[in-house]
Amino acid sequence: MGGKCYMDEVNRIGRAGDLIREPEMILRIGVLALQGDFMEHMQMVEKCGCEAVKVRLKHEFEGIDGLIIPGGESTTFGVLMERYNLIQEIRRQALSGMPIFGTCSGAIVLAKEIEGSNQPRLSLMDITVRRNAFGRQINSFETDIDIEVLGEPPFRAVFIRAPIITRVGSGVKVLATFEDKIVLAQQGNLIACAFHPELTNDLRLHQYFISLCEAYAKKRMGK
Ligand code: GLN
Fold first, then answer.
1. Which residues are CB-contacts of 88 (< 8 A; sequence separation ≥ 6)?
2. Whose CA is nearest to atom 2 of ligand 1?
3. Contacting residues for 184 by C-beta, under 8 A, at least 6 apart
């Protein structure tokens, strides 16, 4: 294919990604890049063989097969999501089935209830979270946890001023606990994770999320 032809084709279809996608379908995973450690998530996504797409603006959500909301500061996320008019857009995508993976503060903004706070949020998952649940002395620590859906070996979980999930609704499946506290849960296409899987070399949790994105992409394409 000559350069000009290729560019004509890209212009016609609109995005180079659409051309690459067939026939072997490369998934495009959006990473919300308003704040926090989105670069680490983008690297994990690329290591999983997908295209990582930085998203900030409403139109950038078009054509992504899933969304990761990284760790950072949930109050800042909420304010920025409101300012960029993203709350409605992300809710719309989630309700149409797009998988969302919220890690640490990403998990907080996914929750319907945040203990003692009315900060802005997506209110998508039927869970209650408690922010900074491990207290001030141990703001950060690492530990191995068992995650049944990933199998052996245990997963190295990095907790940084982490929340816990203190209530799950009937449609929510608990995927992992640490000292009897819920730290990973799934409600259909939504995953809330209290720790930081992007700060390890273990791709399994991202791969698990990407498998949801793949199913969603295939469904959308009628496959
Ligand atoms: N404590 C932060 C909050 O409440 C979350 C910390 C993190 O994302 N590592 O949003």
1. none
2. 73
3. 145, 147, 174, 175, 176, 191, 192, 193, 194, 195
pLDDT exceeds cutoff 90 at 3:
no
In the reported structure, the alpha carbon of residue 184 is separated from the centroid of ligand 1 by a whole-number distance in angstroms of 15
Any catalytic annotation for residue 196? Answer: yes
Give residues (CB < 6 A) around ligand 1: 71-74, 104-105, 108, 131-132, 160-161
Residue in 48, 51, 89, 196 annotated catalytic:
196
pLDDT for 12-59, tens place per residue?
444 444 544 455 789 999 999 999 999 999 999 999 999 999 999 999
Report all structural domains of the chain as residue ranges with CATH numbers, in order of start. Answer: 28-220 (3.40.50.880)
Closest residue by Cα to residue 103 from 183, 210, 47, 177: 183
Per-residue pLDDT reduced to its tens digit, 118-128: 999 999 999 99
User: pTM for the complete prediction?
Assistant: 0.89
Helical spans, DSSP H, in the chain: 3-13, 16-21, 38-47, 74-83, 86-95, 105-110, 204-220
